[in-house]
Amino acid sequence: MVDISGTMYVVTSTQVTFKAVPAPNDAAWPSGSPTWTGASGKDDTATASFSSPSADLTHPTAVKAACGTSSATASVIVCDLIPVRTPEDNFVGRSDTRYGVGEILGLRLRTNPSGVTAVQLGGARWIQVIPISGSGSLTSSPAKDGTGTYICQDVASTAGSSVALQLQILGGPSNGKTANSSFSVVSPSNLVFTKVGAKYHVSGRASVGFWAAIYFRPVDVSFHNCLFSEDTCPSVMNGWYELKYPDGITHEPAPDPIQVGLGDATAGCRVGGVNTLDNILAMPPGSDPPPPWATGSFVWNIPERYQVVGSPSGWHQILKAQQKFTIDAVGTMAVSKQNAGPVTAAVNEDTSP
Predict the structure, then answer these.
(1) Potential cystine with 110: which of 82, 126, 170, 236 (Cβ 3.0-4.6 Å)?
(2) Cβ distance 320 to 302 under 8 Å?
(3) Is a pLDDT exceeding 80 seen at residue 285?
């Protein structure tokens, strides 16, 4: 008998059949031989079920066949198969069980004990099992080394849409063994507008405005691989505004979409990052209306949208943010947007900023 060359690597719960071969090959086994240690069998064939991982790579399980004073041993390292997901935007405090639409996940294989490679196990690939098709984009390395990339779907439930990937062994004694990797994908559920800095006002004029940072919710996932844009919408006016603007004023968004910033487990992903602000004015600078004034209001219900970078599926609405302007008979103006404000300025207040 001859020892098996090298070490055999198998995944936990693999059953392996061993065969003892006499030397020379055409020799007959004596009655009752060979005898087996570490496997159960009769005559020249035995099976072993490996239910627990090896302590480390230096302590393989030995399967031995003996005949008289001759013996052969197979050394077997048993490992747990562990699928690993790592989001590209892996910020502190984020969720490790759910991801935002468009998030990019790096995929790899890990084992317990550590150090066993996909090649040693017979090759490995990633497949998607839930949903089977039409959601997300999975690329498994052609090298069959257990690595891959998953780009989360464009649209999902705000409560979370289920995804299940599977790491699959492609050859060797553990051929067909799998390990599941399940998570959920969420769409933006809300936007939060946070006033930044001093308000805008020109003393002696009916004028007011402020600047706001815009943050995506929820905060425990990333929407960094998304673009943000507002859409057009008509105005709803009454009183002084309706008399001054009888045809209304259509809301016109910025000409170019803005990429959403990196994740933040406290504030959420900020639109455009730290240097981007939404300019919220009751009137365009320089067009502050002279008296006489009167009570009135002006409202835009602005569609706020996202699109995954590079996606052909287009824009998806998150919500309609109400931007509201008011004026009274002495020219005091107020403006608010969604949860931010109202910010108010009387005509005789000092210029700001």
Answers:
(1) 82
(2) yes
(3) no
Around Cβ 353, how many Cβ atoms within 10 Å?
8
Residue 120 half-sphere exposure toward CB, CA atoms < 13 A: 19
Phi, then psi, of 185 in degrees rounded to 5: -120, 135
pLDDT of 287 above 80: no
Asked if 10 contacts 77 with a C-beta cutoff of 8 angstroms, the reply is: yes
Cα–Cα distance for residue pair 353/143, rounded to 1 Å: 59
pLDDT band for 331, please (50, 70, 90 cuts): very high
Structure tokens belonging to residue 256: 């170019």
Query: From residue 245, how far is each of 85, 97, 195, 238 by CA, in Å?
Result: 55, 51, 28, 10
Q: What is the distance between the alpha carbons of residues 71 and 38, in angstroms, rounded to a whole number?
A: 13
CA 162, distance to chain mean position in Å, is 12
pTM: 0.90
Residue 182's alpha-carbon distances to 84, 93, 135, 144, 271, in angstroms, are 11, 20, 14, 21, 29
**30-37 long-range CB contacts below 8 Å, 24 or more apart?**
30/67, 30/68, 33/66, 33/67, 33/68, 34/1, 34/65, 34/66, 34/67, 35/65, 35/66, 35/67, 36/63, 36/64, 36/65, 36/66, 37/62, 37/63, 37/64, 37/66
How many CB atoms are located within 10 Å of the residue 116 CB? Answer: 24
Is pLDDT above 50 for 1?
no
Are the CB atoms for 253 and 214 separated by under 8 Å? no
User: Cα separation of 99 and 339, whole Å?
Assistant: 25
Q: What is the pLDDT of residues 177-186, one digit of tens each?
A: 999 999 999 9
Quote the CA–CA distance of 188 and 223 in Å, as a whole number.
8
Percent of the chain whose predicted confidence (pLDDT) is above 90: 80
CB 200 within 8 A of CB 209: yes
